[in-house]
Write a structure and sequence with these properties.
Layout: E1 3-7, H1 14-26, E2 33-37, H2 39-48, H3 54-61, H4 71-77, H5 83-94, H6 99-104, E3 108-115, E4 121-126, H7 131-140, E5 150-152, E6 155-159, H8 168-173, E7 178-182, H9 197-203, H10 208-233, E8 237-240, H11 255-280
Parallel strand pairs: 1-2, 1-7, 2-3, 7-8
Antiparallel strand pairs: 3-4, 3-6, 5-6
Helix pairs in contact: 1-2, 1-11, 3-11
Amino acid sequence: MKKGLVLEGGAMRGLFSAGVMDAFLENDIAFDGVIGVSAGAAFGCNYVSGQKGRVLRYNTRFSKDKRYCSLRSLIKTGDLYNADFCYHDIPERLDVFDSEAFLHNPAEFIVVCTDVLTGRPVYQKLEKMDYTDLEWLRASASMPLASKIVRIDSFRLLDGGIADAIPVKHFEESGYDRNVVILTRPEGYAKTKTKFMPLFKIAFRKYPKFIDAVERRHEVYNETLEHIRQKEKQGDLIAIRPAEALPIGKIEHSADKMRAVHAIGYQAGLKYAGQVKEFLKG
């Protein structure tokens, strides 16, 4: 039996997931593997390193810092979230990521990116959290139209949520048969086709397969939600969702709103902790 934690993205909605994970850390809930997409990846690595509260701490600390997330950063660097500041200055100097604890945790940690050349998901295992691993983490969370394409080896990468927003099927195919999925949308949510499709077609005209993936994104996402519901009914999966739409924007500068969403997730994590422990026992 392999126990997996699957983390959806959703930009600042991911603070809900961070709250759930902090409650899990308090209750000594461990998994054999964690897979995250976008904010799920950027925040989920702190679960593997055991750094309770770090996600909320650095997000609130730098919420209004123009080096962190700003129109100025987008204009000057091509990234709304400044790449060097967010993925190197913060984890290496300003709020240090515990790479030693990450390294010694036996759980594997996988991030999902989208290859703009193929339109397909790329699943990358991170083991060291060195410079290259942090670049993979950045790629997973690089939102199209608000980020530059991230180049790693032969890959040209952007947000994993385009190709596989909730990678539960990938984990199942990899042998994970007891999965907990943390979603950032409430029950009943259905994704619709993006209204920014004309912009995507202009911005990514050199990457037709990526455009195809964006056009199909809502269909793949909704099919995955239905798969999760069926697995829930069978008792093969636990999905943790907010009870209602989270009171936070995709991009958010209010520390109070960040704390509120984290608190909602934390309470959900406490609520589900006992059930998750029993479920993981098999």
